[in-house]
């Protein structure tokens, strides 16, 4: 890959990218030179209207994301400031490493009432609620909580909404309560799929498999469990955090995906976690996401049996659930 010396300092700040305004006005590059250098086989590339990559090799994911911001930013503004354009939605989440968040087309916020033509790779969205911004991998972006809400506003598939929002929370990018507040501020909780996903996160659910399990359990007469409760031994040592836990009965549901057990070490870690739980009197039902989806009756039957067995148990479990509050949620409300 050949990267000619950037003709303007700003291109070195922008991952090798520059706008036409920056090149011709600030950098003093004649329009004829710009046209010549961006011809097929030339040293530069036109990634988007008025946005150029000053190298011959293909752009990486950061450069594509920043190109979308450069396209949307006001021509005379500093595009890295985040004042006139900021990456949001799936593209911003993809920069954070969120799986299933497609980087293209890139959603970019601009300030209302400004308007900008859409492009197959860029979807400008005018907003009157300008967010706080931060720089992620060199790209001005909204905070993860706003990016997640903007993603949900455009996503159509309920399971995809569940999965992506759960990943954002599970990765620690935002708290479920903050996400719920942002979804409410964006007036998105009126949508059933988004309201359901937000309610699951408030209840402690952190994955699509857990969400399906919660749906399945809600339709039964089984007691309501705690989701992702942190269990400790009597001396305060952390024990485990099962997917679902019935503290009164000392029963846990562990949803183990083969995706995370490809290695011997990962599988042994799962077995050791189960042994720790069982050594403290917790009865464990293990299931895969496909079992929850395809044969939920078998999982419910196993849980029902263990929950019934706990009634006459002479020795209660020694695991204690701490720092977890089971929230009461009302299906018809927005929280």
What is the element layout, followed by pairings?
Elements: H1 9-13, E1 17-19, H2 20-26, H3 31-37, E2 45-48, E3 51-53, H4 61-72, E4 85-88, H5 89-95, E5 106-111, E6 122-127, E7 133-136, E8 139-142, H6 144-154, H7 158-170, H8 176-185, H9 192-202, H10 208-218, E9 226-227, E10 230-232, E11 238-240, E12 244-246, E13 251-255, H11 264-279, E14 283-287, H12 289-294, H13 296-309, E15 320-322
Helix pairs in contact: 5-6, 6-7, 6-8, 7-9, 8-9
Describe this structure as you would to a colleague.
The chain is of the alpha+beta class and 335 residues long. The chain has 3 domains: 9-59, no CATH class; 68-202, no CATH class; 220-322, no CATH class. It has helices at 9-13, 20-26, 31-37, 61-72, 89-95, 144-154, 158-170, 176-185, 192-202, 208-218, 264-279, 289-294, 296-309; strands spanning 17-19, 45-48, 51-53, 85-88, 106-111, 122-127, 133-136, 139-142, 226-227, 230-232, 238-240, 244-246, 251-255, 283-287, 320-322. The strands form 5 sheets. A 4-stranded mixed β-sheet has the order 9-12-13-14, with helices on both faces. The chain has a 3-stranded antiparallel β-sheet with strand order 1-3-2. A 3-stranded mixed β-sheet has the order 4-5-6. Helix 6 packs antiparallel against helix 7 (158-170) and helix 8 (176-185) runs antiparallel to helix 9 (192-202). The longest helix is centred in the C-terminal third of the chain and has 16 residues, at 264-279. The protein is elongated and about 85 Å long. The model is unreliable at 1-6 and 323-335 (pLDDT under 50).
């Amino acid at each position: 890959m050949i990267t000619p010396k950037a003709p303007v300092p700003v291109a070195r700040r922008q991952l090798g990218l520059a706008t036409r305004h920056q090149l011709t006005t600030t950098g003093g590059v004649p329009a004829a030179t710009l046209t010549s250098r961006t011809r097929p086989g030339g040293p530069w590339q036109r990634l988007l209207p008025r946005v150029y990559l000053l190298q011959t090799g293909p752009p990486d994911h950061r450069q594509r994301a920043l190109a979308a911001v450069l396209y949307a930013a006001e021509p005379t503004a500093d595009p890295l400031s985040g004042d006139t354009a900021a990456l949001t939605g799936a593209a911003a989440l993809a920069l954070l490493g969120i799986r299933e968040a497609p980087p293209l087309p890139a959603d970019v916020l601009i300030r209302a009432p400004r308007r900008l033509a859409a492009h197959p790779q860029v979807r400008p969205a005018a907003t009157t609620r300008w967010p706080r911004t931060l720089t992620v991998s060199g790209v001005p972006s909204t905070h993860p909580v706003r990016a997640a809400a903007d993603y949900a506003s455009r996503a159509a598939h309920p399971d995809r909404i569940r999965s992506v929002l759960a990943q954002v929370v599970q990765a620690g990018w935002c708290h479920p309560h903050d996400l719920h507040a942002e979804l409410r501020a964006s007036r998105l909780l009126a949508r059933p799929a988004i309201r359901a996903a937000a309610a699951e996160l408030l209840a402690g659910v952190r994955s699509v498999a857990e969400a399906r399990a919660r749906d399945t359990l809600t339709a039964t007469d089984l007691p309501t469990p705690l989701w992702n409760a942190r269990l400790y031994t009597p001396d305060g040592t952390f024990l485990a955090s099962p997917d679902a836990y019935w503290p009164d009965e000392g029963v846990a549901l562990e949803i183990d995906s083969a995706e995370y057990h490809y290695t011997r070490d990962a599988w042994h870690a799962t077995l050791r976690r189960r042994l720790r739980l069982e050594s403290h009197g917790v009865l464990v039902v293990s299931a895969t996401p496909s079992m929850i989806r395809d044969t939920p009756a078998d999982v419910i039957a196993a849980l029902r049996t263990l929950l019934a067995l706990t009634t006459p148990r002479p020795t209660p479990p020694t695991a204690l659930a701490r720092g977890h509050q089971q929230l009461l949620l009302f299906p018809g409300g927005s929280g």
